[in-house]
């Protein structure tokens, strides 16, 4: 069999590499589309796995302390998730309103039905603890240093809010989302009650 001359092999190699690159484009495009997908009303949030937490938070959520848990383990019908960062100035300004919202929920008839957690995107345990102490927040603030939980929400800014229905195990229907501050906790409370059907 006659050997191919190097001048013949080069175009063949280039053609093969080009074919492989073009074949990979649809998969890469789909991957990018998934990364850019932002959680919105009417979608489903996966049953996110979260790290174990302290006794105070565990009691509020109805889960064992110090053990990893999923959203479906939380004893509530509905959950408001706040995506925040200790370094976000909007989150810092929103903190007193979140404190007031949580306190109003605790004294309402729906204290056990709707609960709140905060996900500190890119934040360590120390950073969320600093944020909690600085603004005297009593609802669970959970670190998400490797963006594992954030990846389920999408590329959102902070703060970001999602109200999800926990009554179904597995995927959780999203009833409401908002990117950006709400500032008026009374109006936001009424909106949450309406979206959850608790009015």
TrEMBL record:
- Superkingdom of origin: Bacteria
Sorted alphabetically, the keyword list is: Redox-active center, Signal
The record's GO molecular-function terms, alphabetically, read: antioxidant activity; oxidoreductase activity
Q: What is this protein called?
A: TlpA family protein disulfide reductase
Q: Does the keyword Signal apply?
A: yes
Q: Which residues form the Thioredoxin domain?
A: 39-197
Methyltransferase listed as a keyword: no
Q: Which InterPro entries match?
A: AhpC/TSA (IPR000866), Thioredoxin-like_sf (IPR036249), Thioredoxin_CS (IPR017937), Thioredoxin_domain (IPR013766)
Signal peptide stretch: 1-29
């Amino acid at each position: 069999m006659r050997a191919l001359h190097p001048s013949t092999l080069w175009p063949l190699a280039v053609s093969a590499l080009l074919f492989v690159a073009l074949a990979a484009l649809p998969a890469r495009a789909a991957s990018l589309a998934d990364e850019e997908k932002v959680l919105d009303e009417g979608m489903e949030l996966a049953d996110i796995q979260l790290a174990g937490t302290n006794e105070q938070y565990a009691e509020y959520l109805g889960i064992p302390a110090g053990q990893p848990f999923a959203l479906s383990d939380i004893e509530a019908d509905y959950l408001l998730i706040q995506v925040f960062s200790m370094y976000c100035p909007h989150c810092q300004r929103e903190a007193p309103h979140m404190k007031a919202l949580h306190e109003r929920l605790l004294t309402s008839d729906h204290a056990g039905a709707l609960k709140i957690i905060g996900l500190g995107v890119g934040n360590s345990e120390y950073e969320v603890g600093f944020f909690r102490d600085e603004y005297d927040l009593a609802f669970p603030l959970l670190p998400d240093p490797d963006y594992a939980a954030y990846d389920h929400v999408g590329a959102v800014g902070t703060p970001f809010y999602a109200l999800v229905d926990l009554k179904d195990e597995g995927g959780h229907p999203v009833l409401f989302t908002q990117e950006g501050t709400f500032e008026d906790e009374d109006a936001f409370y009424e909106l949450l009650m309406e979206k959850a059907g608790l009015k």
